[in-house]
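Summary of Year 1 activities. Much of the first year was spent building the evaluation harness for sequence design. The harness presents a backbone, in tokenized form, and records the residue chosen at every position. We chose the following record to illustrate the format because it has been used consistently in internal testing since the harness was completed.
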């Protein structure tokens, strides 16, 4: 995928990001436009368009994304009060970047699950 994909370019170091955790297969960095006091994005380094493609193509890697997200939540001090993981997937969810990413939100009460 490479140069066409914003998050592949962050993995490649071509676009700067505030990285909070890196493993052999995953990367976690702060969202450029945070929607909560803590807002971190967790991605697999390998390109998958969305969580459905990732879970069907490499469920083990999907688990590694969840594990990194949990470690980030722990390191950000979110485990006691709780946090939210979100994967926007496709048009109805308003997905904007088509390299799968888990949003890790926390640090304050997060409000209702969905706007109506
Ligand atoms: P989506 O709507 O696809 O679930 O979320 C995309 C997220 O990526 C948004 O929260 C947006 O603020 C974030 N984002 C977009 N461009 C960049 C960027 O260049 N760097 C970082 N760190 N986050 C970005
Ligand atoms: Zn990508």
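For this record, the design step produced the sequence shown next.
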């Amino acid at each position: 995928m490479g140069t066409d994909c914003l998050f592949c370019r962050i993995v490649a170091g071509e676009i700067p990001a505030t990285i909070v955790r890196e493993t052999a297969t995953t990367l976690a960095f702060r969202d450029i436009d945070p929607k909560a006091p803590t807002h971190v994005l967790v991605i697999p380094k390998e390109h998958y368009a969305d969580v459905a493609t990732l879970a069907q193509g490499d469920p083990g890697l999907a688990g590694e994304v969840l594990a990194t997200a949990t470690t980030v939540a722990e390191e950000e001090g979110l485990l006691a009060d709780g946090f939210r993981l979100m994967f926007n997937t496709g048009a109805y969810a308003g997905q904007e970047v088509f390299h799968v990413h888990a949003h890790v939100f926390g640090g304050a009460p997060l409000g209702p699950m969905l706007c109506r």
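Strands lie at 19-22, 26-30, 38-44, 83-86, 102-106. Quantitative recovery figures across the full test set are reported in Table 2.
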